[in-house]
């Protein structure tokens, strides 16, 4: 892999100077990534989509798919239903905003709850907005019984058009985790009174778990689970290890793979392996006391987006590994982790388009959202 730029000498020296002060020293960047593309083949599974952002299987050959512009689509029995789901909440689709993640309740077969994240505008479909979490049911092609689970205070809405975060996942106890990016206001990621630049945890009905780390703390939002997160667009609970993993966009360099733990500070913007987009130094530090190091980072940035744990039987040797999507590198990575540590990665798809989301299907195949389609990856035939 060819480096697109070199980190400034001052930044490298500063990393060495703080290593003895930090619980963990600076982490090396991912450099060599072997290819396993020859081990897979793929075919188009869903065609005719418009910027799919998230998708989830509701059954064999049945799927819900979000499109950035604000439509929730149904795919059933090999066919994309022409009419989107009616009565979906209005989104601000400007910039990086839109209708983003979709997830099913852990008890979906019984209660039919569907969860959505989206960039919610205060008025109309533009202007100040913030990530919002809702749930509802789909009956006869329409969204009904809608409930708001998380909505920021109106004074916390901002008119920047990026860094919404927005992934949703559930732990073994059924608690809901979601991410909100820093919204381009990087200093606010360290402010516990504000929702942006954080990973949040709530119960499925929107109530607050009593053991959330900042419950009862003055001037701290009780939903916050971790902070100092720039823009986590990948978030997944590992069903085997019980670990919460995230992939987080860095600036120019410093995309991160993080093990998210309760109450921890992940450092943005005080520490980073990236630099400003114009090439200037963002921060002198890659490590500081009281701030977590990533399990790994990608420098140059690959623009990480979409994250899953492979849980199928079609690729048995890959079970338990992370599936990491990339926008800029148009790459799907297979990442091995164990006991909260990064062990290595390989590339299983390349140059087919920007990868926004990825999931393991009910059949054990790997499904990947590209700019206008979803593809199905299976083992290559010799």
Description:
By secondary structure, the chain is mainly beta. The chain has one domain (9-379): TolB, C-terminal domain (Neuraminidase), CATH 2.120.10. The chain is built from 2 helices and 24 strands. Strands 1-24-23-22 form a 4-stranded antiparallel sheet, with no helix packed on it. Strands 2-3-4-5 form a 4-stranded antiparallel sheet, with no helix packed on it. Strands 6-7-8-9 form a 4-stranded antiparallel sheet, with no helix packed on it. The protein starts with 8 loop residues before the first helix and ends with a strand.
How would the blueprint of this fold be written?
Blueprint: H1 9-18, E1 40-47, E2 52-59, E3 62-67, E4 72-76, E5 79-80, E6 99-104, H2 108-111, E7 114-123, E8 126-139, E9 142-150, E10 168-170, E11 176-180, E12 198-202, E13 224-227, E14 232-237, E15 244-248, E16 255-260, E17 296-298, E18 304-309, E19 322-326, E20 331-338, E21 341-350, E22 357-360, E23 366-369, E24 373-379
Antiparallel strand pairs: 1-24, 2-3, 3-4, 4-5, 6-7, 7-8, 8-9, 10-11, 11-12, 12-13, 14-15, 15-16, 16-17, 18-19, 19-20, 20-21, 22-23, 23-24
């Amino acid at each position: 892999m060819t480096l697109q730029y070199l980190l400034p000498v001052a930044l490298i020296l500063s990393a060495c100077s703080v290593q003895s002060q930090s619980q963990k020293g600076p982490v090396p960047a991912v450099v060599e990534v072997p290819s396993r593309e020859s081990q897979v083949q793929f075919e188009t599974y869903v065609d005719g989509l418009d910027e799919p952002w998230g998708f989830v299987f509701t059954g064999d050959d049945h799927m819900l798919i979000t499109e950035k512009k604000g439509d929730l689509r149904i795919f059933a029995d090999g066919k994309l239903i022409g009419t989107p789901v009616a009565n979906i909440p209005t989104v601000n689709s400007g910039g990086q905003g839109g209708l983003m993640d979709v997830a099913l309740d852990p008890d979906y077969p019984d209660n039919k709850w569907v969860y959505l994240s989206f960039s919610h505008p205060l008025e109309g479909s533009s202007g100040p907005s913030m990530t919002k979490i809702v749930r509802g049911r789909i009956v006869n092609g329409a969204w009904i019984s809608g409930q708001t689970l998380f909505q920021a205070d109106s004074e916390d809405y901002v008119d920047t058009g990026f860094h919404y975060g927005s992934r949703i996942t559930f732990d073994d106890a059924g608690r809901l985790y979601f991410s909100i990016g820093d919204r381009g206001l990087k200093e606010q990621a360290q402010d516990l009174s504000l929702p942006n630049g954080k990973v949040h945890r709530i119960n499925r009905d929107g109530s607050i778990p009593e053991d959330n780390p900042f419950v009862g703390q003055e001037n701290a939002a009780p939903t916050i689970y971790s902070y100092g997160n720039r823009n986590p667009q990948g978030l997944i609970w590992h069903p085997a290890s019980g670990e919460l993993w995230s992939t987080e966009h860095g600036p120019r360099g410093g995309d991160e793979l993080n093990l998210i733990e309760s109450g921890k500070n992940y450092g943005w913007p005080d520490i980073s392996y990236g630099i400003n987009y114009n090439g200037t130094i963002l921060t002198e530090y890659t490590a500081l006391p009281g701030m977590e190091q990533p399990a790994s980072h990608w420098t140059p940035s690959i623009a990480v987006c979409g994250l899953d744990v492979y849980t199928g039987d079609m690729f048995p040797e890959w079970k338990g590994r992370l599936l990491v999507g990339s926008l800029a590198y148009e790459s799907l990575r297979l990442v091995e982790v164990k006991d909260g540590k990064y062990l290595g990665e390989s590339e299983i798809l390349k140059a087919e388009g920007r990868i926004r989301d990825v999931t393991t299907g009910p059949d054990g195949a790997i499904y990947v959202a590209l700019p206008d389609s979803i593809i199905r990856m299976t083992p290559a035939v010799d």
